[in-house]
Specification:
By secondary structure, the chain is mainly alpha-helical. Helices cover 54% and strands 6% of the residues.
Length: 527
């Protein structure tokens, strides 16, 4: 099989974008040195266990360590693969991408592995595109191509935030599969995993072979945590603020790097209500009886209370942040604004920027001049806080409400903006791959908000009970826009989403009690 054909077949194996490590999320120079040195030694020691699991509570800096290790080895061209799980709404079960990404990363790095993988998948469309079973993917895409290969040196794989994979609970989740099977990899594999110390995850690896488990509060490796937080504050605060308050703030953080990061943003990017020194004093005095995760939650609550002082502002916060968190892939300011313009509830689309401008210490890219950058929580603990009514009180985000708004706005976008030959192609006889400027046309005519609506309207629908208003929009969709929707999915190489979307729709329709409106047209479209 020639190389171009081999590349094409392997290229069909799903690869989740946005899952790679982020260099800027690593550790500050001079911090976490004991952990980093321990992990580097573990990677390089031929006698080491295959897996190292670093457990720690939210905000204790384990992800920074994972990103820093990935960055260092990547700079030395010794990182084979990295996979960063992010807690978000799951449109489909996505954890299987860990194995497909790893297979393709191995193929990119090792030519003999690529050749072996190509032979395995070339005549097996189901294996390339249809299989999501962990065992099948691990065995066929990773273990089999590795047989007989002699790769010199450690093969490093970094997996961050396993607890956020969406499949790390129960007896048969991803955590259990990894614990039971990673020891079957060749002895030079080194798999670094970070996770919160949840019972199911830690117990699975405690019972596994060839695993070492460490915790961020380790007496020896974590002995310099206070000093590391002090170093962070020294480099991030104004010198006079640090000299006067740095030590007290570091003590207040109680080992939580996330507390220090949010406090720094609160101090440096204030809304003009309280002076900078007044804010520092407020941080040091408030909730003195709170500790651990409660300390972090109180900080989130205090910051939001100062930024959003009345019910109108808080309602806007819940609406905007709720839609960001309910999204199945990160939305930008521009995409969210477009979604809100198509909402049923006459939402103020211009309020997005105004609401997010003070949340730079909590959400990514909200202070950037580039309104096309994706917005996600800088730390999972913020999502956990606002989606827990007992902790967040008036800032509680009800994700069902957000799904309701997004389902309506997605369908409205599709009904309003989809049209025949949306990219203005001159001929219908050319396949997409033969249209030289197709990517340019897609950028111009299928903006991200519309593309999102085409791909995820059914996922938002699936989070809701049956609604007559939504059903009416779906009728219009199938009568007027169905073929245009298929065309849009084809243009963006997302046709594989069509069948699951129709299946999800069938389930949603079945949930409607006493619905006598005919759905024959929808069934015919499915056929």
């Amino acid at each position: 099989m020639i190389v171009t054909a081999l590349d094409a077949k392997i290229g069909e194996i799903p690869y989740r974008r946005g899952s790679r490590f982020i260099p800027d999320k690593g550790c500050l120079p001079g911090t976490r040195t004991a952990f980093l040195d321990f992990i580097v030694d573990w990677v390089n020691n031929p006698a080491s266990e295959r897996s190292l699991v670093l457990c720690g509570l939210a905000g204790t800096g384990k992800s920074c360590i994972a990103h820093e290790i990935a960055r260092r080895f990547d700079e030395m061209r010794r990182l084979t693969s990295s996979f960063i799980f992010i807690r978000k709404e799951q449109s489909k079960t996505e954890a299987y991408h860990l194995f497909t990404n790893l297979a393709r990363d191995l193929a990119d790095r090792y030519p003999l592995f690529k050749t072996a993988l190509g032979r395995i998948v070339k005549d097996n469309t189901s294996l390339r595109l249809g299989t999501r079973d962990y065992g099948t993917l691990f065995q066929r895409l990773i273990q089999e191509p590795l047989k007989g290969l002699h790769i010199v040196g450690p093969i490093l794989v970094v997996i961050d935030a396993l607890d956020e994979s969406g499949d790390a609970t129960g007896e048969d989740g991803l955590h259990r599969f990894l614990a039971e099977n990673l020891s079957e990899l060749p002895s030079n594999f080194r798999v670094l995993i970070t996770s919160r110390p949840e019972d199911g995850i830690e117990s699975a690896f405690l019972a596994a072979e060839s695993v070492v488990i460490k915790h961020t509060n380790d007496n020896e490796l974590g002995a310099t945590t206070h000093y590391d937080i002090l170093t962070f504050l020294r480099k991030r605060l104004a010198s006079d603020d640090f000299e006067q308050y740095g030590e007290a703030l570091a003590r207040r953080a109680e080992g939580l790097f996330q507390w220090a990061a949010v406090a720094r943003g609160y101090i440096r990017e204030p809304k003009p209500v309280r002076s900078r020194k007044g804010r520092i004093g407020h941080l040091l005095k408030s909730a003195a009886d709170q500790h651990g995760q409660d300390l972090l939650n109180e900080l989130y609550k205090g910051v939001l209370e100062e930024y959003f002082t009345d019910e109108e502002a808080r309602s806007l916060f819940r609406s905007v942040v709720g839609q960001l968190l309910a999204a199945f892939e990160p939305l930008s300011v521009r995409s969210l604004t477009s979604q809100r313009r198509h909402s049923n509830d006459d939402e103020d689309s211009d309020s997005v920027v105004e609401t997010l401008r003070y949340l730079g210490s909590l959400l990514s890219n909200v202070t950037s001049f580039d309104d096309t950058l994706p917005i996600v929580p800088l730390h999972t603990s913020f999502r956990d806080f606002v989606t827990n009514e007992g902790k967040s009180s008036v800032f509680y985000v009800d994700l069902r409400v957000a799904h309701h708004h997004l389902a309506h706005s997605c369908l409205n976008l599709v009904l309003d903006d989809l049209k025949f030959n949306i990219c203005g192609l001159e001929s219908s006889y050319l396949s997409n791959k033969d249209v030289e400027d197709l990517k340019v046309r897609i950028v111009k005519h299928l903006p991200p908000a519309l593309s999102y609506a085409c791909r995820f309207w059914d996922d938002h629908l699936g989070r809701l009970d049956f609604e007559t208003d939504l059903f009416g929009k779906l009728q219009s969709f199938f009568e007027k826009k169905f073929l245009f929707w298929l065309e849009a999915l084809s243009l963006t190489s997302d046709m594989h989403l069509a069948s699951p979307a129709l299946l999800s729709l069938s389930v949603w329709l079945a949930s409607g009690q006493d619905v006598s409106i005919t759905i024959d047209s929808i069934k015919r479209a499915n056929n």
